[in-house]
Specification:
Elements lengths: L1 H8 L33 E5 L3 E3 L3 H10 L4 E11 L4 E4 L5 E5 L3 E14 L14 H10 L5 E4 L4 E3 L3 H12 L6
Parallel strand pairs: 3-7
Antiparallel strand pairs: 1-6, 2-8, 3-6, 4-5
Amino acid sequence: MADIIRAFCGDGSKWGTKIDYSLENKPLSTMGPLKLINDLLENFLVMNGDVLTNLDFEAFYNEHVEAQNIFTISAYSRDQKMDYGVLEVGSDHKLDNFVEKPTTRYIVSTGVYMANKKILDYIPENQLYGFDHLMLDLIKFQHPATVKVHSGYRLDIGRPDDYEKACNDLENNKILI
């Protein structure tokens, strides 16, 4: 939908900012396209387009720069409920424990990142290269990303349940962005 975004946003001047566009000739996944941008700043924001959050972007950027991180992930806690009873089975194939529809808490990415230009050294030219590839390479080469847990408002409005919650929150003035 690049044409629609470009038609709506233009060059950004109506918001007092400058917008540049970079388009892929072939799919490069989430991090591969960064290699196409010639004028990236030393530290820059990378963000999924379906994130609704009240993250303090200025503070997030400043913490990233001051710590001299190569990559900083904004994360949050999310509970994932299992729809089934879980069987814990021993090596003798006997039931050791049963947990009815457990909920597990995970620390997950918000889809908002601050990156240092050094990550471009890990991204191959003109190849599919995603967030997962970059994270595993940074760990492999002993430059792991820093994780900052965000406890404020955050929804992935690409998920139907989060989108519905965002609509309800907006209607009820519960979105504090």
